[in-house]
Amino acid sequence: MDVDRLLPTPEAADLIALTREIADRELSPRVDAHEAAETYPEGLFATLGRAGLLGLPYPEEYGGGGQPYEVYLQVLEELAARWAAVAVATSVHTLACHPLYAFGTDAQKERWLPSMLEGRLVGGYSLSEPQAGSDAAALACKAERQEDGGYRITGTKAWITHGGRAGFYALFARTAPGGHGVSCFLAPGEAEGLSFGAPERKMGLQAVPTTSAYWDGALIEEDRLIGTEGQGLQIAFSALDNGRLGIAACATGLAQAALDAAVDYANQRTTFGRRIVDHQGLGFLLADMAAAVDAARATYLDAARRRDLGRPFSRQASAAKLIATDTAMKVTTDAVQVLGGYGYTRDFPVERYMREAKIMQIFEGTNQIQRLVISRGLARPEK
Ligand SMILES: Cc1cc2nc3c(=O)[nH]c(=O)nc-3n(C[C@H](O)[C@H](O)[C@H](O)COP(=O)(O)OP(=O)(O)OC[C@H]3O[C@@H](n4cnc5c(N)ncnc54)[C@H](O)[C@@H]3O)c2cc1C
């Protein structure tokens, strides 16, 4: 059953209806085969781009959808309920557009932003390295300014969602030593001296590749520096505040899908002469799952509304990511339990949901790192 959403405008309600239609037509029929075979859904992101779903929270003047986060995130949730990998890649693309939109010059935005927001260039976000995940300031990939113009990029980046498939990467590389020596670049998807590793062999989200990128002295134009040299970590963390809301919405959609599958099953399966939903022990498990999904949605929507009003939302975004992804892990695990032995097979989607939920607690800042952000937001200056 469709989630009964509170939406701010009739236009937003139409957008959710359109998203459901596209997701039911383009995502649901393809997800199982692509996830099982670990094959990329060719052409799917172009379809999402043409439908206007790849630039929703950005202004219409640049080809975006002009939607508040409150609405964009509910679109993501609908996608994630059908196909988590596609929703996550959509969220990462939207995150990868943030540096240019929020920190680029007008000329840079005019040059690149429309093709990004209209989905003709799908994006990746390249912050992590093999030795620098949670501790992003430890990144080592170098960007050396050349006397005759441009930057030479040398080093290894890791864990790039859409790696090797994206048309651009928000790339973070070191222009000087220390925490203030990181800079942000809008790197092209193809360049001489840029290659990608084989897709990681993951527990879930197998249809969209996650790869390393090897930068072997590739030269990129000077104009691809976003913001100023040394502003990279500020840009990276600003983007992540938004991206964490996207992951919270994806996790909520995944939890909702698991809840729906569990409820359907519990209303049909009988044991001891009655439907399992009518056994109080199982009914209460479903009740806890439903309450947790409601709470996850309310938490991310609160953070999104703060963002839409221009209020600080970093702490709330971390809380939303923490709560929604822990909820997804618990609810998907419980959904497997509700289906009993069948839940443990690939004949039902709940085992996939459970595998997909795990990564939500890890990327875009592990949930330990979210606690760090939240606790720092609570700490007062020492007297
Ligand atoms: C499928 C997938 C897709 C990804 N997509 C992207 C992407 O598109 N772009 C990108 O840049 N990265 C991406 N990542 C990388 C991801 O963001 C990192 O894996 C994550 O930030 C954790 O970094 P790490 O793996 O190096 O773990 P580490 O940082 O080594 O952490 C290991 C453990 O120590 C804990 N820990 C570390 N520091 C602290 C601390 N101070 N206090 C308490 N606990 C701590 C962590 O929570 C974790 O449990 C992706 C990863 C995966 C698996």
UniProtKB/TrEMBL annotation:
Residues of the Acyl-CoA oxidase/dehydrogenase middle domain: 125-214
GO molecular function per UniProt: acyl-CoA dehydrogenase activity; flavin adenine dinucleotide binding
Domain Acyl-CoA dehydrogenase/oxidase C-terminal: 230-378
Span of the signal peptide: none
Obligatory cofactor(s): FAD
Swiss-Prot/TrEMBL keywords: FAD, Flavoprotein, Oxidoreductase
Source organism superkingdom: Bacteria
Residue ranges of every copy of the Acyl-CoA dehydrogenase/oxidase N-terminal domain listed in the record: 9-119
InterPro entries recorded: Acyl-CoA_DH_CS, Acyl-CoA_Oxase/DH_mid-dom, Acyl-CoA_Oxase/DH_mid-dom_sf, AcylCo_DH-like_C, AcylCo_DH/oxidase_C, AcylCoA_DH/ox_N, AcylCoA_DH/ox_N_sf, AcylCoA_DH/oxidase_NM_dom_sf
PANTHER family in UniProt: ACYL-COA DEHYDROGENASE, ISOVALERYL-COA DEHYDROGENASE, MITOCHONDRIAL-RELATED
Protein family: Belongs to the acyl-CoA dehydrogenase family.
Name of the protein in question: Acyl-CoA dehydrogenase
UniProt organism field: Streptomyces filamentosus
